[in-house]
Amino acid sequence: MSNFHIYFTSVLCSIAVVDMRSDTVTKPTDEMRLAMFKAVVGDDVYCDDPTANKLESSAAKMLGKESSLIVPSGTMGNLLCLMVHCDGRGDEMLLGDDSHISIYEQGGSAYLGGVYSRLVKTLPNGQLDIDDIRSKIVTIDDVHFAKTKLICIENTHNRKGGRVLRPEYMQQVAELAKEKGLKVHLDGARLFNAATALNLPVSKLTECVDSVNVCLSKGLGAPIGSIIAGSKEFIAKTRRLRKALGGGMRQVGVIAAPGLIALEKGSKRLQEDHDNAQFLAQGLAKMSELGVRIDISTVETSIVVFSVVREDMTVAEFVAELEKLGVLMFVFGPTTVRCVLNCEVSRAGVQRALDTVQTILSGKYTQKND
Ligand SMILES: *Cc1c(COP(=O)(O)O)cnc(C)c1O
């Protein structure tokens, strides 16, 4: 293929890029943009932004908690929650070694929150083994040890490919926490995906935790923002801390308005992303002789993780070739790639992605040898 052809193909493809790097890439719909335009606003630092207040009360209701708070990002939401739960010097939290908080939040819990992280191995299904958690809890007052205050769990689990934690498992974590006098924080960035997969109301997945973070800006489709929820007293503390961290926003109704649409409508269409994830996974499974490795039984929600094992091509090269043909995926590890299905990717887009993977791996597109 000539350079002109490659250029021409990529120009054509730029018209309709299939972007599966993440579900954060979704852009606000016209309905959301109109809602932003029309949003009734006030100053949320004075708690008088009516649209933010409306979002916070409906989110609290949906999540089955007394109170909720809009925050700029899931990272800030998690940080606020763990700082409020672990508010003494020398407090620690237990969390998965493959959790988002541990891997992708810059260690902010340590340098901003002063919270020590004690890691528990994350199992392939996203769970932390209950006995493993139990063995790491320190509640005795011994000068050698940090004091355990919190257990963090993640549902769905990002690094484990969107795996779902069932309510029975979460209940077991909550019982252990109760027995030991600890709190439980749920990083539920994609909690609505878990609820969709289990066909349960989302409140069934929050009833046994003390706090939860849910991203509006991922599969739900809002442009910005997360919600944290918990007891009235807990959320009052996070509101205070949010201001200190620079997250006190003023006419935040312009963000809350699309957030409300995300909660009401975005949460109802996630099954489509899950169906597309299945379609993608099944298509990839047919390419094993081209070096694709995937265990389709692990695809439970919107995330598809697969490996590409080739002598002639690294995963980074594979993803770079895909990009030239207008298909965007995320390099997830030395041999793994992640796709997150989202509302901007149609079934036809998934088919195009599959065709493009096939083209590249079957050597019909050998740009390197040109
Ligand atoms: C995306 C994500 C976050 C953080 O959200 P941001 O809004 O990107 O800061 C937290 N936890 C999990 C599991 C996530 O996938």
The secondary-structure element order is HEHHEHEHHEHEHEHEEHHHEEHEEEH
Q: Based on helices, strands and strand pairing, what is the structural class?
A: alpha/beta
Low-confidence stretches: 366-370
Q: What share of the residues lie within helices?
A: 40-55%
In percent terms, what proportion of residues is strand? 15-25%
Distance between the termini: 7 Å
Counted beta strands: 13
Biggest beta sheet attributes: 7 strands, mixed
Please work out how many helical segments DSSP would assign.
Answer: 14
Structure report:
Helices cover 40% and strands 16% of the residues. It has helices spanning 3-14, 30-38, 50-62, 74-85, 100-103, 108-111, 130-136, 167-180, 191-198, 232-244, 253-264, 270-285, 315-324, 347-361, and strands at residues 18-19, 67-71, 91-96, 116-120, 147-154, 183-187, 211-215, 226-230, 292-293, 303-308, 327-328, 330-331, 336-340. The strands form 3 sheets. The protein has a 7-stranded mixed beta sheet, with helices on both faces. The chain has a 4-stranded antiparallel beta sheet with strand order 9-10-13-12. Strands 1-11 form a two-stranded parallel ribbon. Mean pLDDT is 94; it is low at 366-370. By secondary structure, the chain is of the alpha/beta class. The protein is globular and about 60 Å long. Bound molecules: pyridoxal-5'-phosphate.
